[in-house]
Amino acid sequence: MKGIFAGCALLAVCLAWTQAAQAAPAPDRSATTTGGKTTLTVLAAASLSEAFQELGRNFESSHPGVEVVFNFAGSQQLATQIEHGAAADLYAAADERWMGYVKRHGLLEGVPSVFARNSLVVIMPGSNPARLDRLQDLARKGVKLVLAARAVPLGAYSRESLRRISSTAGFDSGFADRALKNLVSEEESAKQVVAKVQLGEADAGFVYRSDVTASQAKRVKVLAIPEGGNVLATYPVALLKGAPNAGAAREFLFLLLTPEWQRALQAHGFLPAATAGD
Amino acid sequence: MEVALRVLAGLGAGLLVALLALPLAALFLKVRPETLLAKLSDPVVAAALRLSLETALLSTLIVCALGLPLAYLLATRSFPGKRVVEVLVELPMVLPPTVAGFALLLAFGRAGLLGRQLDALGLHLPFTTLGVIVAQVFMAAPFFISPAAAGFASVDRRYLDIASTLRASEPYSFFRVMLPLSLPSLMAGATMSCARALGEFGATITFAGNMSGRTQTMPLAVYMALESDLDGAVVLAIVLVSISVALLLSLRHLHAGFLWRSGDAPRRTS
């Protein structure tokens, strides 16, 4: 009996603490917008997490009364959520495939616009346990390679990149197949690939350039992919049908293509939307 | 007043049953029989099913073999640190599985606490089927040990005392008295831990990764299929649910059978 009381008391203390912690940074915002607060819900690819969180804060400070709520997940998971009726305003995907999927189901309002691009890099643990010096070493027997699963945009880009690398100078045509034989895990998102490499369990993994954030850069080593072997990832964004807050959503869409927000995206490792060719 | 209470209780119970039953019904309504058959012969599905059955069976055997002595010690001895061991044994039940998987990586991963020692022994857990089994054993062990210890503890001490007055050694009375009398609890525990191992997801994907034929068990395959192939996901889910239901049913059946057979033997007095 005593134990139950102690447990309840502990839970109550934790609850009070989390509420206090949540309330702490809020007052300046809530003070200006007592009541009548609207929510802008953005479904965004996991790889956009850091960049969009910063942009969301910008948006909130320039649009008092609007709260930006993000749901970051794999583009493929978000597409399924939209298909099954998730109420949201914007969908930002990491490839055209899943945007097209949502469009085919008639769930878009208007036309998607590309707001950013990304390229791929190979990362290794800081200790480089497999002693990889160059990209060719990925095909060496026994290397533990981790990729995102095929359904994940990054997974499709990574396989396409491997295929392209095989036909660049300095690589033989069997490179991709041999490298794929070294595949030990197909992860559910880009962030999981980063985690497996950063923990030192995988020898190498394909991730987005923007995944190698300043804090990651200290823990992992980067192998660049030659020009002809790389893939340009495309990030389209679109207004969703039945968006509860279409006004704020259009505003967010507009801002995404302004020079200021484009610079912010580039600071997070993304390439400008207008990158020519691919 | 009493009528109102009864109605309220009935409503509450009905609501909960509906919450439990409707999602399952929806799963079965979603699939057409022909897709069910077509998907079952899909090599990825077949590989996941096979891997799941093999690993869950093996980890249940390991849990039983190692859990039996531990449960016996917990039920019959008091020793310093017993409380700590009891909490340790129950912890995986309440631990979020992803946390368990992460902790397993930090302990037994290549860069983990015992990474070098395991490597020297030639044991590699992350990204291997062995890792899947370790994750399952970790998560499923409490489901065997707790009921087994409770079963041992509920055996009437007098039978053991009589056995010892007849100069039966401890091992002898364990196998001839303790084990037969607590068999229903042991079987129940083994079945539950097998069901838990079969459904294991979070610890497995975090610790062992996801690779078809090697570490992709049924729950992982369902999760991955959800992202690209909903039909496949539904079929996999149905198979998984059916196996779990069969396990739970067999558990009830087993229990009923034991009660009937041991009907004449006094099982517990206190």
Question: Can you describe what's shown?
Answer:
The complex is a heterodimer of chains A (278) and B (270). Chain A has helices spanning 2-23, 27-32, 49-62, 75-83, 96-104, 153-166, 175-181, 190-198, 214-217, 246-256, 259-267, and strands at residues 38-45, 66-73, 90-92, 108-118, 120-125, 145-148, 183-187, 204-208, 220-223, 233-240, 271-272. Chain A is an alpha/beta fold and 278 residues long. Chain A has 2 domains: 2-118 and 234-267, 3-Layer(aba) Sandwich (D-Maltodextrin-Binding Protein, domain 2); 120-229, 3-Layer(aba) Sandwich (D-Maltodextrin-Binding Protein, domain 2). In chain A, the strands form 2 sheets. A 6-stranded mixed beta sheet of chain A has the order 2-1-3-10-4-11, with helices on both faces. In chain A, strands 7-6-8-5-9 form a 5-stranded mixed beta sheet, with helices on both faces. In chain A, strand 1 (38-45), helix 3 (49-62) and strand 2 (66-73) form a beta-alpha-beta unit. Chain A starts with a helix and ends in a 6-residue tail after the last strand. Chain B is mostly helical. Chain B has 12 helices and no strands. Chain B has helices spanning 2-30, 33-40, 43-76, 82-94, 97-108, 115-120, 129-153, 157-165, 170-199, 202-207, 218-226, 230-261. Chain B starts with a helix and ends in a 9-residue tail after the last helix. The A-B interface holds A 74, 76-77, 80, 125, 127, 129, 144, 146, 149-152, 183-188, 196, 199-202 and B 105-106, 109-111, 126-127, 205, 209-212, 214-215, 223-224, 226-228, 230.
